[in-house]
Amino acid sequence: MGTLLLFCLPLAIGAQPASEPIPSPPEIYRHLLALKPDPDRVARVDGLVLVREDARFQLQEGYLALGRPLFGRVQAAFFWGSGRFTFSPRDTLEKANLQRLFGTDTLRLPFRQLYLFFDDTTLQELTSQLRFSGGKVASSVTADLKYVFKYLESSQREHLPVAFVRSLLDSTASGLFYAHFSDVVFEPYFFEINPYSEESVRFYRRDLSTSVRYLKEIVCQYPAGKRAGSGADLDVLNYHIAVQIDPGLNFSARVQLCARLLPESERWIYFWLQPDIEVEAVSDSTGRPWPFWKGDNSALLWIQRPQSPSSDRPLCLTVKLHSKRLLERRGDWILLRSSSNWYPRHRFEDLATYQLEFTVPKQLELVAVGGLVDSAVVDSRRRMRWETEGPVRAVSFNLGEFRRRIFRLPGLPPVEVLLSPRAHFNAGRSLLRFRVLSGRHMDVQVGRDVVQSLRFFTRRFGPLSVPRLVVSEIPTFSGEAFPGFIQLSWETFQFTEKTGLDAIFRAHEVAHQWWGIAVAHASYHDQWISEGLSEFSALLYLERLKGRARYLKALAGWRKQILGARRSFLSRGMPPGSLWLGIRNESYQTRGDFYLVVHKKGAWVFHMLRMLLMDPVSENDSLFTDLLRRLYQRFQGRRVSTAALQALVEEVSGQPMDWFFRQWVYGYRIPAYRWASRIQARPDGRFNVQFRVIEETGSVPFRVPVLIRLVLNDGRSVRVRHWLEAGQTRFQIADLPARPVKIVMNDLESVLARFHKVGW
Ligand SMILES: [Zn+2]
After folding, report:
1. Distance (Å) from CA 339 to ligand 1 centroid
2. How high does pLDDT run on average in the chain?
3. Element (H or E) spanning 724, and its range?
4. Ligand 1 centre from 730 Cα, in Å?
5. What share of the chain has pLDDT > 90, as a percent?
6. How far is the CA of 527 from the centre of ligand 1 (A)?
7. Which of 8, 369, 596, 691 has the fewest CB atoms lying closer than 10 Å?
8. So what's the ipTM on this one?
9. What is the CA(524)–ligand 1 centre distance, in A?
């Protein structure tokens, strides 16, 4: 999502403002930007305390000026002097994250400037304790306000601007509170209570990796006691989108959407829309124009609804939009620069049905989510209609000079693979100059992995409900999956890769049809289930394709990456966060950790479950297979949370699993062990092996079911599962019929841990 440039921009209101005296988003932004301290209301401060949830602002000594009123209400205050911020999150997981990032679970930060914006009790607290009169406001306070606004603009997912607008539109106090404070101007911190967000308490720091951009990133985020609402205005039920694309790749569309208005809906309702898209007009079903606003380069479209449309009837809107930059040529490919935000969306998790119409130059092929119901070529243009078979979360399309190959296998939906021969021919010629060889019949190679993994997953997890699977290529280095529609990087269509990495990449996107699409994750905390299980499914496919050794080698490689993150000879480095943090694993200090943790460690967690549920002797996998089948059956068309997954694992395994999820999903630490062994020959000719194991990290008691394999000198192998419990250091494997010649600790990569062998 692009950065929102709310301020300093020419504002375009699309229709005449309504007569009701409610401020519009551009007015709100403009007034917010112009907000200044009021020199008539300055007070000396000596020991004032503001407490918001788990944060405490001590204004020890200095001055405080109230802001000038914003739409008749005082909603800001500015402090300069000396103060202290103390924060100790009550949420234990957030406390652990604070500990990981700052090395303490109670943060104390001094500040010299504090900027407050509020729609709560702050004003009463200030006016009841301070005596305001005319005074001088420090020039630095006014001068540094511009930075405060720059950070406001770059709010994550722009949720804060939405909260500000909603809060100011709401006549009752919403509870919004936002603090920007710093000891050093260029190293600010931020604390916020956003009543429109489920996790309303947020503490941020600055992204210090860059000196130019004013970016902040979340350190802690969790629910507070009181919440104003979901922040949602409506539930979109259906879209009818007619798209026109001309030979110059100019995009225009007429989007009709019908939605159910939610009880807490505001007069200005917002939609997310790619920043490059311009909106021409918004009207209702009678053709009456509605006021709207979208700032240049903003990802928010605001639409003002009339006073009181009946809330029991669906609200239908038509939005006309266009963009010269949404579609972009990359070599001989065409890139849709926003795969699922090219039409207005209110909440990304909403399910809706779609009718799509596309008119494109006839030499271009187009594929979209859904089924093709009609296609015709008239003059130089191709016209196509697509419809989704049921409600889906998002739709996308792909455009290019594609060649189509169809794979049909009994019992499976047909698989269509689209590739652009000309683009690959030209890319191949360029690559040859660097002595890089391109593959042949790449659509067949890709198609083979897609069909084989589709068949494998269908047998393993259960049949999909999609009538077809369309696979096409995009000019990026990533992949993306929609219902029955997969986009893969051009790269996987260019080269033949033999180690299995491409097989994992292709199968991962196929697996998303089960994990992520059919079974969706409940929140960002649970995204590891979709990504980790898709990655793990791809690994199962790799095992099927290339054998157990290749499967284990991939896991060992990922283990090294997870354990070695940012570690060097000199530094132990910042450890990766927990799976529970989801996307928040990505930070300026931990770039790439979303992929490392949510994909790789997520896959590892499913592997550990597999090992735990497997019979160590027969290697019978049926319990684990049963777990995945039940997960799919039970949650198909629904959302699964980490807690629900835990309950299912407990049901299948018949044992409590809280310890497992606490260690591997909610916790971020990874255990490390030193171990030694010695063999004892017994008088009766049999053998015992004694083990000594010491957990090195010590701080968190881990419980680990490790597999140990002993290779005996008569050629036989013995594998046992031993539970390494906290504090336990010695155990033995007794009564072996022959002398062990090899001891494999952590056989089959049974647990994600560091094992280091030492002498007895
Ligand atoms: Zn994925």
Report:
1. 14
2. 90
3. strand 717-724
4. 42
5. 73
6. 10
7. 8
8. 0.99
9. 13
